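User: I'm preparing a small set of examples for a lab meeting where we compare how different chains pack in three dimensions. I only have the primary sequence for this one, and I'd like the structure in token form so I can line it up with the others. Please keep the answer compact; I'll paste it straight into my notes.
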Amino acid sequence: MTTEAAVRPGPVPSADPASGRTACHEPRTSPAPWRSLGTVAGAATVYGVHGAAGRTRWKCFAGRRQLHSPTEAVEWASVPPGGLSGEHRHTRTEEIYLVLRGRGEFLFNGRPHPVGPGTLALTAPGNVHGLRNTGKDDLDWWVIETLAPGTDAVLSGAAHHHPGVPPMGEAVIHDLFKERTVSTGGVFTGPLRQVEVVELDAGERTRLGAPDAELAVFVHEGTGRATADGHTAALAPDTCLTLGASTVTGVEAVITPLRLLVVTLSVPRSAPEAS
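Assistant: Understood. Below is the structure token output for the 275-residue chain.
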């Protein structure tokens, strides 16, 4: 894995009352070295997400306007103790929930599964999922939603009819902090191929990037800096950046160890390289 990147400061959310959530819009700023860069500061408060009572804090870091992969959104969400992100069926997208902090239950096709920091849940089309906070602290999670190939074909004009929704399956849940690297093969068929943990000791450096994939990177713990094309960005917990394909970003843990969560999002071969 290696990368370079191109940033625009984090996307600006706008209200969408009909869906109970907000839409992700690209800010009108000049390009910086990464496709997107932002923190959870200024997260929106949304009520009734997926039909559930109560509030959800929500931030969209990147969407289709920022990315060349068929990725719907890279987001962060949080519910307070007793809160719920409502159960809903996926018919056109594949989605991961990666729990960052807190304790709760991942609801999959009506069955609860206990989750905590590092829990990675994969939801393929045809299945119903939700997330409930059963702990004493806020439940925070990282969300990446990508288009299933059939949906992408319809939206791109390559097909006139959606192939339909597959039947429900079994829950696919991993402990990413123990497994370190999780492949989505056999579950997902779209661009989201892999989720991994990258850890650096204080003073250690690495390079992130891939020739045929964009990378979504979330800082889970620690501080450091990212550098690309002469630009530098400070890294702190709850910072998210997305890196273009065929680019390279250097990452250094400056004073404390740094834990990064990295998702690989493959791009079509015809997609232009990041500038």
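A couple of notes for your slides: Residues 149-156 form the longest helix (8 residues). Helices lie at 149-156, 176-179.

User: Perfect, thanks.
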